[in-house]
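User: what does the whole thing look like in 3D?
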Amino acid sequence: MTLRVTNTAKTYPDGTKALLPTELSVAKGEIVSLLGPSGCGKTTLLRIIAGLETPDAGSEIWFGNDNVTSLPVERRKVGMVFQSYALFPNMSVRANVGYGLKMQKLPKDEIESRVTEVLELCQLQEFSGRAIDALSGGQRQRVALARAIAPRPRMLLLDEPLSALDAALREALRDELAMLLREFHITAIFVTHDQDEAMAIADRVAVMSHGHVVQSGTPEELYRNPNSPFVAGFVGNAMRLEGKVAGSTLHLDGGELALPRDGTGHNVFVRAEDVQIDTEGPLNGKVESVTFFGTHYRVGISGIMTDVLTSTYAGQNAPKVGERVEVSIKPEALMLLPEGAEI
Amino acid sequence: MFKSKTKLLQLIVTLSACAFLLIPTIMSVMAGLTANYFKGISSGLTLKWVFQVWELYADSIFLSLWLAIACLIVTLIVGLPAAYGLARHPGWLSRLLEEFISLPLAVPGLAIALALLQLYGSMKGFRASWAFILVGHVLYTLPFMVRSILAVLAAIDLKTLEEGAASLGASPWQRFRDIVVPNAMPGILAGALTVVTLSIGEFNITWMLHTPYLKTLPVGLADSYASMRLEVASAYTLVFFILIVPLLMAMQWASARAQRKTK
Ligand SMILES: Nc1ncnc2c1ncn2[C@@H]1O[C@H](COP(=O)(O)OP(=O)(O)OP(=O)(O)O)[C@@H](O)[C@H]1O
Ligand SMILES: [Mg+2]
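Assistant: Here's the predicted 3D structure for the full assembly of 606 residues, as structure tokens:
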């Protein structure tokens, strides 16, 4: 089922404009991530799609050819995975997963067989009789997912499904979740403020800021062609090179850089992995800090611009603090974004 | 040395407090079982007085039990939705309402009874029926029911649980039945036992509201002390204990369970 959200906004009773008029469409079977910093309105948008929040007048939500704007949540046939999972403590794992099917008034034996099928898919067979408070965080997360998909919803909505887990488990479950979502062949929207999570799971990412969707595209598109400094910074931590642009040259404190095209009226951004320590490089600076990350070093270099410029260094013998180094940046790695496009 | 001395002191204080509470109880129970209290135990033990109490006051015992059950039903029907509403809509208005419901706890029973008499005293049929006493009991016990359920509901994320059920297709009534009530159960149980115990033991309001034909257990007790042999009144106390002590113990157990749930 395709989802179309048009002109949808939300003003809370206290006057907070949590969501400004927003357009969003999600194709059948597509997995879309809403990515953005805390408080930007991701949960609000997701809850409006679910029917848990009433949008402002003029908003429209379409599930395929049905206008569901005024339909309450219980009649929208969406599956929802909550941040806190919201599993029913008064029911076993099995009863939790079967609850949606029971609400559809399916015959008992059909409920049984479908619950068993979903439990198997989510590798929960051995826990089926357990109480909810006898499960680990990761297991609860899987039960929440199983409960949401068991009634075969038209769409799956997930609000930060991994954020209640600790970092190590989160990474492992991230790939598992991506795999499961693909197996379900279901249209899914999931909210996160973690760019790695968004990139790993989603076909398409909608980046949000201050109640707006600022850019939406495949992870690669967002990474390579951000349309604003905000997206460049939020997706892949791009740094602004503070210098003077003259034609297709950028003048920095530590030297000059060739730009890929005329950069007049633009700011220049670069990512740490594109900043290379290279004896032939045109820029010159001093090593301020070296941090070891296992697969690479993070080297902070001063003297090239006012702020410290960060470079990732993958080699064996990293430069020492205090050394002077040459730095090069390939013109195609530089991102030119119009000035004043701050969001 | 010092340590064991304080231990000893503690033991003495505890034991004397127990004795202070227990000895009158035992005396009273014994009085109800001796043939002649003024001659002492030597006059022999008997169940005569207990049977006499049963003959004289069986009606009071049943009236109290029915009242307690009716009171429980009414407080459940009113209290459960009220607690649910208060839990789902936290805010200053809810706090105010909660305080308002709890007002009968602070007002002396006498004042409540007088207010009820002033308001309904002229409605003869109602004034003389057991429903009149029931109203007093409900007013007095309702806050215990509401607060007990509210404490359990406040400890769980009811809103999100209900949203979860709604997203699975449950209507408001189904959510109430499948999610709210089962999760509130420890509070409902603790509240129910409190209501029954309080209703059976209530004296202040009931004494003001009762008629000669409608005496509850505690009112009958006062009556028996005023007008019967001491042995009969003491046997009455024994009967009262037998009814109320198991209820008290069940109440302790249920509220401990409810408290565990709220942690
Ligand atoms: N019930 C409410 N009443 C008033 N304001 C609210 C309410 N819920 C959310 N807001 C405000 O709306 C804005 C957006 O909130 P929302 O929960 O959608 O953010 P979010 O992007 O999900 O953030 P996070 O990543 O922290 O979950 C915030 O400024 C928040 O304070
Ligand atoms: Mg959120």
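In plain terms: The interface with chain B takes residues 50, 52, 72-75, 77-80, 82, 84, 86-90, 99-100, 103-104, 147-148, 151 of chain A (CB under 8 Å). The two ends of chain A are 32 Å apart (CA to CA).
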